[in-house]
């Protein structure tokens, strides 16, 4: 496997060293020479380059410097072998777990056009609400299996979790009690449409320092068109009032903006949320692999979004950063971490995320699922709360995922960065996985854009050719 990868973003040329996890910006001439080295032997590439560049000596010296740092030595494929992977499985599913995801309400008061849960929630038992007894049973199990030396974290999800405020209050009270008795910290987070927010709930959230993600899809016409109430009215007024109530109490609110087909202008959305006062904004294209709809981003929407980031969003982010302001939209934080002090291992963990373990979701009826996105899908159930998850099903989930992505990811230059697609993105309704190249295209664009951004603002990690590497 080649140890370096070349790419260009706008007017900048970069080489990525897979082993060291480093990005280096190079001159156009050095980039040309590196391309030649990828197509022929080093000696032939040098001869060809000299023929086209009479003043080639400085460029050859720069590339020789890269060579002395190991840029051209073959590296191992980053996918763990079967024995390593099985050991990782055994370690995960025999160890403690300090996180809990409670789907306290499968129902919702909205009928968002793109929702992957559908709108058939009126038929759910108990209106889709988790009983207090189930929630508290889940809490007791969490503290029983948690590592007492580190804190625990509870996430409330739905549907719309604020349909079940009494259970949220009971869970927080019991978790605080158990954590205090054990000398542990406890943290909370919630994802909500904010339409049911009131002063009492806002106080609970602020007092317990909840991580907050609120759904708002943009200005009123756009949001109301995508997120009507169950009776067909707009929800923008209630959602924006709920978010502003939280902001007025000093809460930091990350807004999740869902972008449906046709692709909206991303920069206009970002500027709207900046004026709105959101602490941070996340833009999420609609993509429902199991239940596709007319709201899903098409491949042309994907391209339009990437073009908008290239042409409009990146220049805006750079100008914000150079003016001393943190951009409200920054999807490149992981790239920044990757380029800094953290060097990713040669062998990437085979378990891409917390599915079936730290991100396992408890449904209102006590059924366990890999994460919140699988709740209600019988083919993906992992067991019952009373008995705990079935270890064989949990391991099979990851074995099947690995089998689906291994052929595509095993020889990919970017696998150390992305770790493979989100399992949900390649999941099928029948309980199987099917690899898609769509994730790969999006991730490659994200890497290029992120590296360009950090280089443009002069932050750590991405160095110019010739600079001393830290």
Which features would summarize this protein structure in a list?
470 residues, alpha/beta, TIM Barrel, 10-stranded mixed sheet, 15 helices, 41% helix, globular
SSE layout and pairing:
Layout: E1 4-9, E2 12-17, E3 22-26, H1 28-39, H2 42-52, H3 57-68, H4 82-94, E4 99-105, H5 132-145, E5 152-158, H6 165-182, E6 186-192, H7 199-207, E7 211-215, H8 220-226, H9 236-248, E8 254-259, H10 266-276, E9 280-285, H11 299-322, H12 333-339, E10 361-362, E11 367-369, E12 383-384, E13 388-389, H13 391-409, H14 415-418, H15 438-456, E14 463-464
Parallel strand pairs: 3-14, 4-5, 4-10, 5-6, 6-7, 7-8, 8-9
Antiparallel strand pairs: 1-2, 2-3, 10-11, 11-12, 12-13
Helix pairs in contact: 1-2, 1-3, 5-6, 11-15
Report on the architecture of this protein.
It is built from 15 helices and 14 strands. The chain has a ten-stranded mixed beta sheet with strand order 9-8-7-6-5-4-10-11-12-13. Strands 1-2-3-14 form a four-stranded mixed beta sheet. The longest helix has 24 residues, at 299-322. The model has no long low-confidence stretch (mean pLDDT 90). The protein starts with a strand and ends in a 6-residue tail after the last strand. It has two domains: 4-75; 95-470, Aldolase class I (TIM Barrel). Helix 1 packs across helix 3 (57-68) and helix 5 (132-145) packs parallel to helix 6 (165-182). Helices cover 41% and strands 14% of the residues. With 470 residues, the protein is α/β, with parallel strands linked by helices.
């Amino acid at each position: 496997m080649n140890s370096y990868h070349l790419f260009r973003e706008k007017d900048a040329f970069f080489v990525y060293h897979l082993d060291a996890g480093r990005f280096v910006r190079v001159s156009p001439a050095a980039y040309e020479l590196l391309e030649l080295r990828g197509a022929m032997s080093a000696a032939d590439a040098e001869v060809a380059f000299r023929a086209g560049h009479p003043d080639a000596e400085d460029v050859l010296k720069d590339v020789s410097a890269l060579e002395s740092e190991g840029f051209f030595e073959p590296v191992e494929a980053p996918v763990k072998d079967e024995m390593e992977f099985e050991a990782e499985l055994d370690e995960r599913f025999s160890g403690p777990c300090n996180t809990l995801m409670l789907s306290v309400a499968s129902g919702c008061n909205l009928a968002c056009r793109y929702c992957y849960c559908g709108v058939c929630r009126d038929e759910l038992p108990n209106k889709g609400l988790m009983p207090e007894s189930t929630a508290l049973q889940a809490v007791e199990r969490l503290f029983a299996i948690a590592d007492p030396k580190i804190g625990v974290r509870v996430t409330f999800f739905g549907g719309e979790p604020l349909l079940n405020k009494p259970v949220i209050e009971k869970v927080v009270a019991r978790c605080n009690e158990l954590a205090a008795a054990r000398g542990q910290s406890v943290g909370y987070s919630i994802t909500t449409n904010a339409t049911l927010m009131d002063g009492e709930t806002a106080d609970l959230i602020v007092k317990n320092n909840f991580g907050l993600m609120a759904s708002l899809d943009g200005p009123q016409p756009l949001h109301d068109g995508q997120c009507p109430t169950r009776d067909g009215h707009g929800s923008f007024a209630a959602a924006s009032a709920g978010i502003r109530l939280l902001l007025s109490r000093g809460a930091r609110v990350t807004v999740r903006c869902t972008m449906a087909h046709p692709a909206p202008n991303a920069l206009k959305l970002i500027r709207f949320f900046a004026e709105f006062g959101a602490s941070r904004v996340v833009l999420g294209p609609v993509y429902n692999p199991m239940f596709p709809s007319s709201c899903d981003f098409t491949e042309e929407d994907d391209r339009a979004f990437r073009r908008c980031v290239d042409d409009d969003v990146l220049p805006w982010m750079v100008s914000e950063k150079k003016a001393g302001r943190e951009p409200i939209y920054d999807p490149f934080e992981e790239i920044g971490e990757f380029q800094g002090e953290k060097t990713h291992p040669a062998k990437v963990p085979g378990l891409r995320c917390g599915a079936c373990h730290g991100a396992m979701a408890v449904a209102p009826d006590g059924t366990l699922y890999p994460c919140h996105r699988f709740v209600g899908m019988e083919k993906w159930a992992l067991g019952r709360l009373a008995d705990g998850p079935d270890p064989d099903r949990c391991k099979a989930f990851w074995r099947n995922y690995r089998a689906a992505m291994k052929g595509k990811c095993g020889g990919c230059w970017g696998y150390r960065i992305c770790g493979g697609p989100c399992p949900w993105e390649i999941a099928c309704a029948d309980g199987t996985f099917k690899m898609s190249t769509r994730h790969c295209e999006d991730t490659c664009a994200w890497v290029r854009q992120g590296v360009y951004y950090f280089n443009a603002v002069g932050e750590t990690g991405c160095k110019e050719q010739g600079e001393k590497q830290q």
